[in-house]
User: Fold Inositol-3-phosphate synthase from Candidatus Methylomirabilis limnetica.
Amino acid sequence: MSEKSSLYPELIRAIKPATGTLGVLLPGLGAVATTLIAGVHLINKGLAQPHGSLTQMQRMRLGKRTNPRFALIKEVVPLTNLNDLVFGGWDIFPENAYQIACHAGVLSRELLDQVKDQLESVRPWPAVFEQAYVRRLSGPHLKAGPTKKHLADMLIEDIEAFRRREGVQRVVMVWCGSTEVFMQPSPVHETIEAFEAGLKANAPEISPCMIYTYAAISAGVPFANGSPNLAVDIPALVEYAHKRHVPIAGKDFKTGQTFLKTVVAPGLKAKMLGLTGWFSTNILGNRDGEVLDDQGSFRTKEVSKSSVLGAILQPELYPDLYGKVFHKVRIEYYPPRGDAKEGWDNIDIFGWLGQPMQIKINFLCRDSILAAPVALDLALFLDLAQRAGLSGIQEWLSFYFKSPMARVDLQPEHDLFIQHLKLTNTLRILVGEEVLDHSGLDYYESGDAYRAGMGGA
Amino acid sequence: MSEKSSLYPELIRAIKPATGTLGVLLPGLGAVATTLIAGVHLINKGLAQPHGSLTQMQRMRLGKRTNPRFALIKEVVPLTNLNDLVFGGWDIFPENAYQIACHAGVLSRELLDQVKDQLESVRPWPAVFEQAYVRRLSGPHLKAGPTKKHLADMLIEDIEAFRRREGVQRVVMVWCGSTEVFMQPSPVHETIEAFEAGLKANAPEISPCMIYTYAAISAGVPFANGSPNLAVDIPALVEYAHKRHVPIAGKDFKTGQTFLKTVVAPGLKAKMLGLTGWFSTNILGNRDGEVLDDQGSFRTKEVSKSSVLGAILQPELYPDLYGKVFHKVRIEYYPPRGDAKEGWDNIDIFGWLGQPMQIKINFLCRDSILAAPVALDLALFLDLAQRAGLSGIQEWLSFYFKSPMARVDLQPEHDLFIQHLKLTNTLRILVGEEVLDHSGLDYYESGDAYRAGMGGA
Amino acid sequence: MSEKSSLYPELIRAIKPATGTLGVLLPGLGAVATTLIAGVHLINKGLAQPHGSLTQMQRMRLGKRTNPRFALIKEVVPLTNLNDLVFGGWDIFPENAYQIACHAGVLSRELLDQVKDQLESVRPWPAVFEQAYVRRLSGPHLKAGPTKKHLADMLIEDIEAFRRREGVQRVVMVWCGSTEVFMQPSPVHETIEAFEAGLKANAPEISPCMIYTYAAISAGVPFANGSPNLAVDIPALVEYAHKRHVPIAGKDFKTGQTFLKTVVAPGLKAKMLGLTGWFSTNILGNRDGEVLDDQGSFRTKEVSKSSVLGAILQPELYPDLYGKVFHKVRIEYYPPRGDAKEGWDNIDIFGWLGQPMQIKINFLCRDSILAAPVALDLALFLDLAQRAGLSGIQEWLSFYFKSPMARVDLQPEHDLFIQHLKLTNTLRILVGEEVLDHSGLDYYESGDAYRAGMGGA
Amino acid sequence: MSEKSSLYPELIRAIKPATGTLGVLLPGLGAVATTLIAGVHLINKGLAQPHGSLTQMQRMRLGKRTNPRFALIKEVVPLTNLNDLVFGGWDIFPENAYQIACHAGVLSRELLDQVKDQLESVRPWPAVFEQAYVRRLSGPHLKAGPTKKHLADMLIEDIEAFRRREGVQRVVMVWCGSTEVFMQPSPVHETIEAFEAGLKANAPEISPCMIYTYAAISAGVPFANGSPNLAVDIPALVEYAHKRHVPIAGKDFKTGQTFLKTVVAPGLKAKMLGLTGWFSTNILGNRDGEVLDDQGSFRTKEVSKSSVLGAILQPELYPDLYGKVFHKVRIEYYPPRGDAKEGWDNIDIFGWLGQPMQIKINFLCRDSILAAPVALDLALFLDLAQRAGLSGIQEWLSFYFKSPMARVDLQPEHDLFIQHLKLTNTLRILVGEEVLDHSGLDYYESGDAYRAGMGGA
Assistant:
């Protein structure tokens, strides 16, 4: 039948149970982070549902199609319960999570007021921040120190103090901060030694986001990067994560337009429909939009968004179909939208004999609503990875990222459906279940197929 | 690594070579059929490319990601060459394929004139047709006979005469005719005995499309049904195909709006985004649109188009997310569009905490341009199946259909990406290659992973 | 200069002042009516603004462009103040306006609660209703009587009782009820004598909407018809309105898609852009959508919506440009939308040398939000008309209707901009102001033009 | 009745007949110009129709609605016949009009070949051009001279030589060249004396477009500016046109997105629907798109496109409705589109009680197809104006421009419908016909209204 009993016996893991509480630390206590925190508390109170979260709602098939079992992911692998999450974070403003959430305008006041106490209790620590890296932002609630190494140490102290105060068993960190200016890998980013020297020498190539990543790994805390910032993906920090046995994942939450792009592009390729151009524009009105109105930050995001098509379409294999794609991505700050974000995609395709056709997609989405469950899943899956003894790059979490990380000698995977199968088959492997390959010929060509096919005895 | 050497050794087939010519018979010599025929001749002359065809252009990965080989499908399995195709067909009008193609207006006169001779040589045989089954059509070029059995025999004679005249080694048939009125399975459709009795008794439950299917199977000719008509999927004919060792496939070419629906819906489900409603409207102006302007034919198409969402979204597993989807499909005859077909989809989704969002898709597509390569691939793959000794329902061809067929005890698969993996993994299995499961954890957690991951020595 | 002092001195009117209160009676106390009532009270309390209402917000230019005065319409003509409105109505359900508004879901509970008392005090009288005329509706709160004449008399008694109880000086009626089945003019509708005989004989050609209209005119109450029902536009009732000196207006509020159509079509015609097709679909989920899901009611609405293009484009004058327009209007009941209504228009145009182009418009509108200020303006303008001594058809109110009424020997005017100029110039005429013709050549070709044009001395 | 016999007797003109031929000179022999020339010849041969042209196809009502006459504009005023046009032009490339048109790809080769001879005979004169003003373009076919005055004189010589060679009675010039970098009015532009001094001193404030304008006026040739360049609208040249008795018009052809904007915005305002934002993006792939990819040229176009909304919506009168409009216009070079141009507009509006709604417009238009008839009409109307003795700014031609010109003490008119009425009423005035004011109350309130209204005796 389609599935075989474990093909990967050597990869089965004895996963430590998810006992006790899990601290979830969020650098950047803005719209996404507070939407996540408010949501978890609303869900715990039975006032809302965790739509959009695979860890909470998704089922996977185990067993054969003739006798399938559709089990919740959280029943297949041991995940921390939502009731056991404790939140903390850093921000450049001192407001508590309730105040921030009210200001962000993502959730109605009516919803927020039902978890007001829980939100008010989350007060950000002062942030590591420099305006040179995010030109459109500035805030008063900052750490100060003579070197970046000092700043990193202060973050580690925050983490340890949080562990002690809250009594959490484990901690994960998910970057929810802003997009920094575009940076390219440099010698400082090559080795952990060079990086640590740079920290002490205040190297300009080391951005705040990197300092958080370094602090997390130092403290044994798994780290996910929700932004396109160059940080967890520099060789120095990948190496460091391996050495410290810390799982890491990145980068740039895949939410609205890019999510749809990684749905539609694989569909076009599966059908061998050619592509001459893809024009994507976004209008959004929140702080994210304001930050991206700066060319430096926009460049970082643009690079992250643009890599998607090439990796999926493989123009080197299909020069006739995908060799001349004009791909343009625009992000437009448009305050009337608020946190709602709207994408408009124009896709110029061609089929049989080169005949042209067009697809236009208008996505009226909501940034933080799409990002919050991604942040949640990453927190829970990274904690799972740590308990399963995995470390370094977690490629099986590519599903969640615009710019997924992979071994340097592997092509990162962008196709949402391959990413999804990678995620679920990895979970199956970890617990010794059969993987799915969806081939299915055995249902028809084995001995009993005709009879079964005919519904006969 | 991700792939294991053949997991399905018992399914490896000794496939007969594709020597000689293949006859492709097309009931319904309209826009789709003539676009296919013209295209094949243009491609053979080097004047156009077979975009949209997997058999001609698609590559599959063989081997590991660290050392992949991306081979053309037609290099992996032995397919009939486009130069070896010979076309024939039936229609209710006597015009030759050139005249029909000019009238259909799908391809420019400039293109058609370059293969005028080849098109003119395809003259349809008189059709088996009754207006009771397609109310908006009528034509003069019809067969007449006292019973449906006589009509079936006349079709078989056409096939045999074609074999002799053209000297073709093998023959396949792909239904490109119109959508018939909605019919439900009845006792006549249950067994081949009942069906053959019905043929002789002129049972009204037996439509022209069924007569073609019966004739094809009788003549040992693989059959694919490009329309939503109840025909190849009735138990009588499935059983008959098994007995005669004839591969069959159906039904209803998946081309424009439904193609995109089976791309987007799996994306929503992968992300656990809920759905409250999906409204799909189509405007089209060709003969297909005119036929579907009749409520009887529309109902047949509507049923075919509507089953898609439920099968993909599994509301029984996800009642909160997909238990109350309002799905409405409309087809509107709109002559200004001609053969171009335009879909507009409005998709109402919800995410984290039930917050609503919307996706709107406008697909300016071309019906025949999307359908022609589907018909081609089905012809070539069914011929392959026959040479590989497969018979009955070819579920691995689900990729091409709005209403894919499956064993009665299996849920048909609608997700385009699962269908695509099913197709490619089936091809891998037939030739003894490793299947892909996309898990990939072994690249990271085997002994050499860290080193490779670091690009190190 | 562009304007001349009154060109129509004989049409200047001595308008009675708007002293005391005005009763606004609404047959059909549903979403539109309650959105109107709630809105007026919210505005009176300073909690909201009358956006969308010309009587409350629009300004008109008086005087020359070189020295213009932009006066509020309500300063130019004496209109009843919003504080002086008193509402009443009829419905087939006995719920009060607060309950209905909560159920309709147009306005948030937060808004409604601020005028809860005022809304609760509006309790509908039992309605005149028969399900034969609106098949999808039925309700318990109905009047009963042996003949339609008796029912009409009961309505008149309601009006008179309302006058006495509320002490209102004047009354107007605006039909906000449902769309009835399609009816064509018949002998009963020809003269007031025939109509009154029909009332007594329970003629099936007399619908509930006609009975309300008859009652209003009998009671000297101006009447506007917000639905496409054949009623105020039958010759019998037009004649009756003249005899009773009652102003009337109709029919079918112009709100969402048709509003935009009467904006865009005049633009195409002004530019001499040809039209091959216009496909309009609507999705809506409220009671209105449910009623229109019935073919009988849909036909009435379809006819009303379809007449628009022909009247604007004048195909008889422009056979090359507009002689072969394929115009199709669809309304689709789609519950996920609720009161929000969405239109999608596909417009196939052609320009220079017949080259084709397309316009697609997606209007995410809200039915009751657009209709409420229309109902308000009609109430206030009809009251003005009565005080100004106007009676019968008020063509200058065409702006508000999908199927505007006109003298039988005149072509109704559908172009929104001509309608708007007609409305504003009519107001100018009534008070003796100069009309605008927008010609403006005099600013350039009179003696002082060059100097002024140069800004010189 | 609605119309009065001539209200403007002093403005009636004795218009000279349009005898003989008219030379139409086009600086910038690109896609627009060659589409115009090819079209006129195709029309003259009876092979195509002048869709999109008011001078050729539009009718105006003369007389009362009860007895209307719908006369073609070209029957009401004496316009030059299309058979009497002779074309010439300047370009930076030496190719003839046939070669350019083939390269532009606006019209099919099949169409162009039918007027090949006529197109080949139009060979551009060397252009006055400097790359500093249009950074993305450069070409070899240029005039050279020591000062801009010399260049202007060379243009005048071209015009005079053209007159002599072709024997044309009259000449007009319509700028079809590229958008120059953004310039602001400076002292050189203030008076004709300063301007002529600047020409001699090679003042950088004087762009090529201004040199053409100066040359035209000097030669007594009416001039229209199809681009947003600062040129015909500087005080020096307005004054010069008055002195020379030359009619002028500008600026920036109103074709696709802005055309629709000036259709929809007046509709919103007429309805008193508020506006929070309007986001407009354009994708286009022709030379125009390439030029506008430069920030300097884009700025010029952006300013021209942005002024539209404010002028129509009058935020100073309606601060609540239009005081905070976020208006953003983007133009994106997207080569897959070719000459086809696509606009996507997102319009955020609000109605009754501030409730939000959205309109989205997708315009798949064709730049040159929309612009060519505009250029034609301007040529013919400017020639009419000159024969009617009009000079200086022709505000009645505002209809054709994104940035219409007006007397400095008047607000330019952007509303397409007011512009259209201004145009047609101006034509009525010139020939002594009654203007329309669309009031229409007289049809109802004059003595015979009731009778007529009832259709009675």
